[in-house]
Structure formats: structure tokens, C-alpha cells
């Protein structure tokens, strides 16, 4: 059996842990001691990485790294919960860091703390926020910050052919980094044309599917889609039987989620989707929707994508 690709958060941080902890803390004296288990009794997510670190000033402490494709408004409470769980499990003070990969809509405010009050009792948790679109690509390439190389195209000033070629060259200079090239290609697809990317580097969907960020894009709409499907199914279940209605609702919800994910990919790449294409997507089966996911990431235009749609 082929070895599974490892291009998740923990793998990225493990490439150069000292450079990473110094970058997220802004302290050149911090050293990484060990990457710890981020699994707790109730919570386990691929985007969380805990590093045990040391500095002369603070001695041993934890750095909790949360890498998010997009900022969620539930993040402040989540950061508070993770800090508490990490400190309880390892009995060390914790420095929490939230790294946002892609910018949220303009209407969303990114918070850097959790704050609540109930019956006169207050809870508060600070955490550092790093937005990758504000990080200078030239600084990453110059140091280099190995863990950030796959993100170069979406960094500040990184969305050019020259910067992409520099990032590819840096990855290919070290054989241990070859699995990261498809991830670099994935983020390059947000800002550059696919034909150009394919000329410069390899695009490996088998490896890319192992990325938690690729999976997050595919699954973004699952909760909403399944919930809508269940509600529709229950309404139908009044006549058909509640149990049968819920089963149909879940199936419809999964199908709705796949439609939403496919349209989301197309919007990320081509901005707007013509009504004709949107209507044709609504008529696709679950199997057809799944086949078109990879096609949506590799076609050069909406016209080319429309030619792949079933007649």
C-alpha cells in the first residue's frame, strides 16, 4: 500500500519547528522542544498543533497553533476551550496563536480575544492572530520560513509567477519537501491561471486530497446542507413516514452540500457562475457532483467546465 501523504499542519510545523515558534511568538530566543499530542478526550482536529517550547525568560511553556482556512466567528470560544484543555493536560502555561489562511468577507471582524460575562462572573482569553494575507512573501522566501512556503501565492506580494517559481525552487532544493508541491499548487490556483501553474510544477490530486484545507473547502457546506435536507425530509415524512423522510433528508442534504462545494470552488476561481451553469449543477446526481470536483479545480475557464457537464 502506498504511504499516505502528510501535508497537514503538524507536518508543516515539524519541518522547521524552531523557526516556526520564533515566528509566531516574535521572540528569537524561543526554542521548540517537542510536538505534543493535540487530541483531547472530546476534541481532535487536524488544524491544531501543540508545541512544547522553551525560552530563558519563560522556561517551559506551550504554543497552541490553530491554522484555519477561513476565520470562524466561533473561534474565540474555541481558542479559550483549547487553551484550558491544553493547560490541564500538560500543566504548562500556554501561548495561543490563530493563523488565518484566507481572508473572510469584509463584513466579518476577526477577534483576538474571548470575552464573556454571566451573573457577574467574567471569562477572558487573549490569543495572537496572524493573517497570512498580511505576511510579506519576500520575508518568507528570504529566511526561508520552510513551513510557510506552500502558502507563498496567497501571502502579501506573493501572487506572481516569479514568487511561485521561487517557492517551487525552495521546495525542490530539499527532497523531504517534495510532498508539499501539490499544496503550493493548490494555493497558487487562488491567484494564478491553472495552465501557468501546471507549466511550473506538478498538480497531484492524490496528494492534495490529504490536505485538511482541501477537505475543508469540499465540506464547508455540509452542516447547512444536511440540516436543510433533514428539514425537507421531515416535511415529506408527514406523508411518507418520519423515518423514511429523515433518511431521504440526509441523502438530499449530502447532495446539497456537494452542489454548494462545487459552486464554491467555481466562485473562488472564476468569481461568478452563470445562471445556466448553476441550474445544470442543480440537476446533477451525487456521483456526477463528486466527479466534477477535481475537474473544477483544473479547468482553465467556466466554458471549459460547462463542456464537461453531462448533457
Describe this structure in words.
The chain has 311 residues and is α/β, with parallel strands linked by helices. The chain contains 14 helices and seven strands. α10 (222-240) runs antiparallel to α11 and α11 runs parallel beside α13. The radius of gyration is 22 Å and the shape is globular. It starts with 8 loop residues before the first helix and ends with a helix. 30% of the residues are buried.
N-to-C SSE string, H for helix and E for strand: HHEEEHEEEEHHHHHHHHHHH
SS strand fraction: 15-25%
Q: Please compute the radius of gyration using only Cα atoms.
A: 22 Å
Characterize the main sheet: 5 strands, mixed
Can you give the helix content as a percent range?
Answer: 40-55%
- Could you tell me the number of beta strands? 7
Shape assignment: globular
Q: Could you give the distance between the termini?
A: 38 Å
Strand order, sheet with most strands: 1-2-3-4-7
Tally of helical segments: 14
Class computed from helices, strands and strand pairing: alpha/beta
Mean pLDDT: 79
Are there runs of 5+ residues with pLDDT below 50, and where? 1-5, 221-227, 237-247
Amino acid at each position: 500500500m502506498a504511504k499516505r501523504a502528510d501535508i497537514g499542519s503538524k507536518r508543516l510545523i515539524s519541518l522547521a519547528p524552531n523557526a516556526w515558534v520564533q515566528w509566531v511568538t516574535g521572540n528569537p530566543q524561543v526554542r521548540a522542544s517537542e510536538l505534543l499530542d493535540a487530541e483531547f478526550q472530546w476534541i481532535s482536529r487536524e488544524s491544531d498543533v501543540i508545541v512544547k517550547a522553551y525560552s530563558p525568560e519563560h522556561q517551559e511553556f506551550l504554543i497552541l497553533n490553530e491554522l484555519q482556512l477561513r476565520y470562524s466567528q466561533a473561534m474565540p470560544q474555541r481558542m479559550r476551550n483549547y487553551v484550558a484543555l491544553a493547560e490541564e493536560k500538560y500543566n504548562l502555561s500556554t501561548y495561543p496563536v490563530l493563523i488565518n489562511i484566507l481572508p473572510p468577507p469584509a463584513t466579518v471582524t476577526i477577534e483576538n480575544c474571548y470575552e464573556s460575562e454571566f451573573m457577574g462572573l467574567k471569562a477572558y482569553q487573549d490569543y495572537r492572530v496572524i493573517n497570512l494575507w498580511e505576511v510579506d512573501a519576500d520575508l518568507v522566501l528570504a529566511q526561508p520560513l520552510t513551513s510557510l512556503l506552500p502558502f507563498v501565492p496567497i501571502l502579501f506580494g506573493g501572487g506572481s509567477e516569479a514568487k511561485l517559481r521561487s517557492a517551487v525552487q525552495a521546495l525542490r532544493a530539499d527532497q523531504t519537501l517534495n510532498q508539499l508541491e501539490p499544496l503550493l499548487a493548490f494555493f497558487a490556483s487562488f491567484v494564478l491561471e491553472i495552465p501557468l501553474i501546471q507549466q511550473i510544477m506538478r498538480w497531484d490530486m492524490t496528494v492534495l486530497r490529504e490536505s485538511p484545507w482541501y477537505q475543508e473547502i469540499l465540506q464547508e457546506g455540509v452542516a447547512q446542507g444536511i440540516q436543510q435536507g433533514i428539514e425537507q425530509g421531515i416535511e415529506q415524512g408527514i406523508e411518507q413516514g418520519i423515518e423514511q423522510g429523515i433518511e431521504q433528508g440526509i441523502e438530499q442534504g449530502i447532495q446539497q452540500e456537494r452542489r454548494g462545494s462545487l459552486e464554491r470552488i467555481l466562485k473562488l476561481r472564476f468569481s461568478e457562475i452563470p445562471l445556466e451553469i448553476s441550474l445544470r449543477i442543480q440537476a446533477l446526481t451525487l456521483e456526477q457532483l463528486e466527479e466534477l470536483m477535481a475537474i473544477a479545480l483544473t479547468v482553465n475557464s467556466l466554458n471549459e467546465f460547462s463542456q464537461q457537464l453531462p448533457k
